[in-house]
């Protein structure tokens, strides 16, 4: 698939990237190369291949699901720059 200069201009606009007119042909070429590579990847047969979460097989460390110390709101709120009535106080941002 080939990307023309007008499509490259539109992609840059949608991505909110300022691209000089003189750089648009190079951008169009790079985008075309990316799409060509993606088309090559689509040709690979991946039937029966398990998805990977890491390059080395490993299991995540797990801890026992037990109740730990709770009721420490005072300690947590002691770190807050502003706490009122048992809650974090933050500036109003929505009218």
Automatic annotation (TrEMBL):
A biological process term (GO) from this entry: translation
Keyword annotations: ATP-binding, Ligase, Nucleotide-binding, Plasmid, Protein biosynthesis
Origin superkingdom: Bacteria
EC number: 6.3.5.-
Record has Protein biosynthesis as a keyword: yes
InterPro entries, sorted: Asp/Glu-ADT_sf_sub_c, GatC
Keyword Ligase recorded: yes
Function per UniProt: Allows the formation of correctly charged Asn-tRNA(Asn) or Gln-tRNA(Gln) through the transamidation of misacylated Asp-tRNA(Asn) or Glu-tRNA(Gln) in organisms which lack either or both of asparaginyl-tRNA or glutaminyl-tRNA synthetases. The reaction takes place in the presence of glutamine and ATP through an activated phospho-Asp-tRNA(Asn) or phospho-Glu-tRNA(Gln).
Subunit structure: Heterotrimer of A, B and C subunits.
NCBIfam families: gatC
Protein's recorded name: Aspartyl/glutamyl-tRNA(Asn/Gln) amidotransferase subunit C
Source organism per UniProt: Falsirhodobacter algicola
